[in-house]
Write a structure and sequence with these properties.
- The protein is an all-alpha fold and 139 residues long.
- Helix content is 66%, strand content 0%.
- It contains five helices and no strands.
- The protein has helices at 3-7, 13-34, 39-58, 64-103, 132-136.
- Helix 2 packs antiparallel against helix 3 (39-58).
């Protein structure tokens, strides 16, 4: 997360109003659902959600600090979650594949040392003649 990302957040009244309505609406709905089993927590969520809805409607500028803090929290959590997921994928997918490749003796990069080889150059087929249309539409 960078401070530059937080500085570039759109904080126009329309963006703050949208934030107040979205987060306030979700908190209010979640509070109403939770209210049956946990009345105290449900009431707190409904109160906070209603406050955000009211401020988003009447005075969106008052939500600027809440909005920036919420987005900063989201950026931090996003960084943590993406790091954890990438580590899990690496150790769950890439590491077992590498171990299996070593067990089977596969060398994907052809790094084997051959002192008898005159060169490690790999000959390739010559490329086909390229036309101007090939360069204009590459994919």
């Amino acid at each position: 997360m960078s401070l530059e990302t937080l500085r570039k957040l759109p904080t126009a009244p329309a963006d703050l109003r949208r934030f107040g309505w979205a987060v306030g609406g979700v908190l209010t709905v979640v509070g109403l659902v939770v209210w049956r089993r946990h009345p105290g927590v449900g009431l707190a969520l409904v109160a906070i959600g209603s406050l955000l809805l009211a401020l988003g409607t009447a005075w969106p500028r008052a939500l600027k600090c809440v909005y920036v803090a919420w987005m900063a929290l989201g950026l931090v959590l996003g960084h943590i979650v993406s790091t954890v997921l990438l580590v899990l994928i690496f150790y769950a997918v890439v590491t077992p594949l590498g171990l299996l490749a070593r067990i089977w003796g596969k060398d994907f990069l052809d790094r084997k040392w051959d002192p008898q080889a005159p060169s490690y150059w790999i000959p390739r087929k010559p490329a086909q003649a390229q036309t101007r249309a090939d360069y204009e539409r590459q994919f």
